[in-house]
Amino acid sequence: MKLSNRITTLNGGGSNGWEIFEKARDMIAAGEPVTMLTIGEHDIGTSREILEAMHQAALGGHTGYAAIPGTPALRETVAKRVEARTGVPTTSKNVLIVPGGQSGLFASHFAAVNPGDRALHIDPYYATYPGTLRAVGAEPVAVPARAENGFQPTYEDIAAKAQGATSLLINSPNNPTGAVYSPETLAAISKACQDFDLWLISDEVYETQVWDGEHISPRSLPGMEERTIVVNSLSKSHAMTGSRIGWIVAPEAVISELTELVTNTNYGVTGFVQDAAQFALNQGDSLEKAVAAPFLRRRGIVQNLVENQNVAQLVPAQGAMYVMLDVRATGLSGKDFANGLLDEELIAVMPGESFGQAAAGHLRIALTVDDDRLEDAIVRLLAYAKARV
């Protein structure tokens, strides 16, 4: 029997970008003391209060089929949160609850593009983006955002790829670069979407982790509300990565059609997880700030260490739970550097090539271990880089 082309071509015949992570995980399983700086997994875990709310909801009987668009209470809570933060009138009819941001990205593209359509995404990109686009039958088309531009895409970059495209996927604050798109960048993105009649799919899962600048949801820009689909989740904002709980915000007609998709795919999100999500959101900004605080502090640790040498250059980290280092001065690719660092120093970081060609020769470092362990890892990483110049 033969598998479908759709499933066998998700990675476009190449890498899925996760080889270093998988290698490091195998080494840890074998008992090696690897410092894992690869994925955006909080070291604090989900708060006990949220877990208690989840536990009580399950004991209370919310273990059966839940409302497919999401529980009315959670949809309303999300709508109020979005309206308060963006100024855009938003009701529960604009909200669909989904099992995590990744599911939201798939569903959004399923709604926005037809098989064979060109679907644009910014490079550097989160590693799953091209596979997600292929999964819905689209042709992924990378729009380069250049290091010398602070990884901010320009109108010209988008326009050069936009002819015949249907959608554009953006992510700000950006994973992997940490770039927070400026008002000027978002204005250029808005103009390109309107000039070329593109759906804009905005991945905003890092909106609560902004260190410099301001998070602006493009849905709030003139002419963009009816062509923007926003994906968000509690994975990063509330350290709930394993709970798989997020949402899509979009025009009512889009949410109505997506509800049919959910009916025919995952059939909704577990009720007690939705109740826990509602509890988490109702804790307000203080909890979100507490979850984000370690990453701002650890960014400072890396900045201070990098300032004392001139081999590895720090890309300005304006947001998110990562920093990106430019190691091209070593003459090594990001992939070769990361493999060598893992083999010789037992430090696992992600090569920039996992996130597209615009990040080649860079490393993405997750700020997800305690301060002392992070400092030790960065000191050894910089010494490894210096020895290769």
In short:
With 389 residues, the chain is α/β, with parallel strands linked by helices. It has 13 helices and twelve strands. 40% of the residues lie in helices and 15% in strands.
Commentary on this structure:
- Its EC number is 2.6.1.-.
- Belongs to the class-I pyridoxal-phosphate-dependent aminotransferase family.
- This is Aminotransferase.
- It is a single chain.
- This protein has 389 residues and is an alpha/beta fold.
- It has two domains: 5-45 and 286-384, Aspartate Aminotransferase, domain 1 (Alpha-Beta Complex); 62-283, Type I PLP-dependent aspartate aminotransferase-like (Major domain) (Aspartate Aminotransferase, domain 2), CATH 3.40.640.10.
- 40% of the residues lie in helices and 15% in strands.
- It contains 13 helices and twelve strands.
- The protein has helices at 5-8, 19-29, 48-59, 72-86, 101-112, 129-135, 155-162, 183-195, 252-263, 271-281, 285-306, 334-345, 371-386, and strands at 35-37, 95-98, 118-123, 139-144, 165-171, 199-203, 228-233, 246-249, 313-315, 322-326, 347-351, 362-366.
- The strands form two sheets. A seven-stranded mixed β-sheet has the order 2-8-7-6-5-3-4, sandwiched between helices.
- A hairpin with a 6-residue loop joins β9 and β10 (322-326).
- α3 (48-59) runs antiparallel to α10 (271-281) and α11 (285-306) runs parallel beside α13.
- It is globular and about 60 Å long.
